[in-house]
Design brief:
The complex is a heterodimer.
Chain A (H helix, E strand, L loop, with lengths): L1 H9 L3 H21 L26 E7 L13 H5 L7 H4 L23 E4 L4 E4 L3 H5 L4 E8 L5 H10 L9 H9 L9 E7 L24 E2 L18 H22 L2 H24 L6 H7 L9 H13 L4 E7 L7 H25 L6 E6 L3 E11 L2 E7 L3 E6 L7 E3 L1 E2 L6 E3 L2 E2 H11 L9 E3 L2 E3 L15
Chain B lengths: L1 H24 L13 H5 L1 H16 L7 H27 L5 H24 L3 H24 L19 H13 L18 H6 L15 H7 L18 H12 L13 H14 L11 H7 L4 E5 L7 E5 L7 H6 L7 E5 L7 H7 L7 E3 L7 H10 L5 E3 L7 H10 L4 E2 L10 E2 L4 E2 L5 E2 L5 E4 L6 E5 L10 E3 L3 E2 L5 E8 L3 E2 L4 E7 L6 E4 L9 E4 L21 E3 L4 E11 L3 E8 L10 E7 L6 E6 L11 E8 L5 E9 L17 E8 L1
Parallel strand pairs in B: 2-3, 3-4, 4-5, 5-6, 7-15, 9-16
Antiparallel strand pairs in B: 1-2, 8-10, 10-13, 11-12, 11-14, 14-16, 17-20, 19-26, 20-25, 21-24, 21-26, 22-23, 22-25
Helix pairs in contact in B: 1-4, 1-5, 3-4, 3-6, 4-5, 5-6, 7-10, 10-11, 14-15
The chains are: A alpha/beta, B alpha+beta.
Amino acid sequence: MENEFLKNRLNITRRHFFGQAAAGIGGLALGSLLVPDLFKGGESSQAMPLGLAHFAPKAKRVIYLCQNGAPSQYESFDHKPLLNKMAGTDLPESIRGGQRLTGMTASQDKFPLVGSFYGFKQYGKSGAFVSDLFPHIGSIADDLCIIRTMNTDAINHDPALTFLQTGAQVGNRPSMGAWMSYGLGSENKNLPAFCVLLSRGRGNGQGVYSKLWTNGFLDSTHQGVVFSSSEDPILYLNDVEGIDKAGRRRMLDQLAELNHEGFQENKDPEVEAKVQQYEMAYRMQTAVPELTDLSKEPDYIVKMYGPECLVPGTYAANVLLARKLSESGVRFVQIYHQGWDSHGNLPKEMAMQAQDVDRSSAALITDLKQRGLLDETLVIWGGEFGRTNYCQGQYTLDNYGRDHHPRAYSIFMAGGGVKPGTVYGETDEFGYNVIKDPVHIHDFHATVQHLMGINHEQLTYKHLGRRYRLTDVAGNVLPGLIA
Amino acid sequence: MQRFLQIGTLFLWFLQCLLLFLLVFQESFELPLAGIGHLHPLILHLPIGFGVLLALFSVVKKQFEQIEILFQSLLVLTALFSTATAIFGLFLAKEGGYEAEQITWHQWSGVAVSFVYFAWVLWQKSPLMVGILGVLTLIFAGHTGASITHGADYLQFGEQKEAITNESIAFEALVQPILKTKCESCHNEQKSKGGLKMNTLANLLKGGKNGPIWKAGDLNSHLLQRMNLPLNNKKHMPPAGKAQLTADEQLILTLWIKEGAKVEQKVGAYSKVFQNLATKQQETTIEPVYDFSAASEKDIAAVNTPFCSVYPIAYDSPALQAEFFVAAKFDPKSLENLSKVSEQLIGINLNKMPVSDADLNILTKFLHLERLHLNATKVSYRGVVDLLKKLPNLKTLAIWNTVISNPEITQLKKQFPKVSIEQTVVLKNETLQINPPILVNEKLILRPNEQLSFKHTINDVVFRYTVNDSLPDSLSRLQTKGIVPIKNYTKVRIIATKPDWYASNPVDVKVYKSNFVPHKIDLLSTPSPKYPAKGGMSLMDFEQGAREVKGVPNLTWLGFKDTDLDALASFQLPTKVNGLTFSYLEKTDADVFPPTKIEIWAGNDSKNLKLIASFSPIQPKEKSGYNLKGINIPISTVPSTYYRIKAHRNKKLPSFVDNKGKGAWLKVDEVVFY
């Protein structure tokens, strides 16, 4: 109690005290300038100025089509005919190599291999194999960089998705989009730098939660702004009846004054963040009508994305909205599409899911390309881990399920400086282990940041006594992915 | 103070004599004081600073008489330190490792500095002239000294760097830059410590007094050995205090030597790890090079508006990118304004902005423009051709959704082969199924003034619908505006159609229509305490019954188990209605059955009503789940104030349910007059 009283009297919180004291220590930096290694800082701790790329970026924006629930690589991008041949036989222990199991298959005494129910075709000059469930994505194979060797540390959805999005399994670290917003700022001052769109497929779904698009310890203005899946993607944005623009302005100015007064008293940085958020909402009032107006989309654009794209809340509609947001300078658009967690009924569920996403995902890439925007927009498509090559539950000829598999799975990227028409990495004949060019989540993050003009070792934030990065203490930029 | 000056001057005489002695006999004496030369870099900056200060004092000396004594002391100190610096310098030069020519210039200019200040102390003439002379000799001596220490090109910065690819020569792209920045300042033509020069490939291959510094594949190569010694070891390289190799740089050198030390080999021929390191180095070296200077911060701030963002492509790049947002707020002035930074702009995004050919004129000023986005603008083929002729550096042009056709784009690409322009996508002729109509109404019990309406997200859609459970086809009733006329409880099945599209899947809607709303409805029988709803009023609240959630009381259904429904609807005035819709739940797996009989009584005296209609719903014959049902019961009567509704519950459950023979539930939702 006494402590709080003291803090109030000093008009300063502990964190602020240390923050400001650190500025004084800046004088010491002078010494380290004269003798570069005076404090043995090393290259990686060098802070870079915020709001600008560290070096000329290849990609200015990211559209992340996150396939939440983990789509199976065996029915999408990793063609393994051996599994069809050996269907029903047990996964050799030499291949499994002590891989831990989830609680869902831990009690299974057999692990019968199961091949893809769907056929594969080769597409484009690259000859990439894509399953028959994704004909539209296959047709643009020469624009894609398919990675078949993604691997992660987690084996269950929550930690894996959190890891994929924030670089740590534990939660409350800033999300990729928040880091981008923090490091690069917003292109369009009238829209948030990080937007989140949610949709739900018809397959077995897994939840999404705000910790996936959190700002973590960063300023809360970097938090992902979730759009509503309703017809009105941003609720309560219009002025209420009887209040005109000038009135709104006056109201915000007065409110800001009160908030600043409050800030003088409690010194809580969140107060300032709140003021900024009100201002952002005010500016959004001018930018959003253009975004949500779909009447200007030509008929053939609608056909390209599929008619669903005009039904609010669907994946296709979100993909179309994502394009519009990205076009309008939103740095990072994050889409989550639920329903890929096919523990059972995989052939049926996967087909429904693919039907929902195939056409519009491919359309997005083609559409960006014709607008001359693909080379500066990085599109990422993929889930948080892969699925097992063996069956979960009862295996029949036309029905099976697959459990979670973290060691190797497939995603694809397009545009934004990645090497087009590439299939990167190789898995063994069982598709179970990586045998060439692994891409760990940390490497993936480092590479994406690199494409955005960020040195992943230099975009840091000091919190609880140490500097944090999206890649924490790991991650390598993979040149093989970069054009 | 005078005493200090006297002692200082005496000491100065001594040092000058020593300097003269050393200069004369420098070839013939051996060093008794090894290492004393290292004091040279320690104090050499003092005479520089003092000399500059003296020159300044000389200018203002007349105005401030008080500084005379300070001036004198400073002069003596400057002379002392410059002489001492020169002496230590001679010792340092004796240590060797420096090129004779450079050393000579530095040595004599340094000596000259000390003489100038010594002479000044002795004669004290025209301080301003001597002061300036002193500074000039200092600059010369300083420059020659810096050239020895930091390399002859120490004044050049912002070197041009090329991007590293797998095709780059590894030695040139990765190894040499490290040696250049971290080693060359002590191992160059002028200064070759340990007899080693690292400035050219030939010198590197020659090695130093310990022989070649690397051997292909040998991890014990001299270079690596010295690099890997602990920092506090005297032989560690680079020496403590100098800029050290980073971990990545050490790894590059190690791997390069380990993998053969081939000076001609390309990056791509090295191991993956090496290539990864190359990309990492790349991050700092990939920068595209622009030879124009950066715009001032003021200019950049001046061209930024809330709807036009102008920012450098990277933090140390002079190149700028401009982007316009929100078409409704486009201001031609902010485009004109950009000419302030015309030299620096390499990208402009005008997508969706109301710009036409006339506005393109401004863009011709932007000679360094590389990327131009004009999607969905009003520019024409002619305008773009004229513009492209004037933009020599343009690499990307985007003109999607303009009047420029694909054949014209082909023409443009031919005429301007350096510019990449994307064609508009032409879709395969494919017929798609249109999405279903979207119900506009939030509630399906329509009030007297409400209509049933549907909409569609695609323009010019035609709706077709049926009310008899059949699938609509091209002969079904047609609606272009999406409004379906409803008389009473109706099951509507509706599809959307449009030429060139397959018809949509049907949407099924059960809709109630209320034309007359009673003043109130009173319950004359008591419902089950489990489902009391809000009494009689819940029969006319326009809320549909909701599904049951376990553990949550459901107040949307009036439920009857031991009594029948008996309700009295009262109008304020005698009202002639056409009929009544009775809405109830059928869920036989939970013993919820339709009433066996519904009676309607009417009249103007509530105590004296007449039976005017009765209806017996069909009882289900098998188990079924949740099914919300409505029944239209036509009424023909004189205008009446009171309508009494009695619904008899099913008292004996049929044999297909578990509780056969017992009484059923009657759950009533709404009573609607049409």
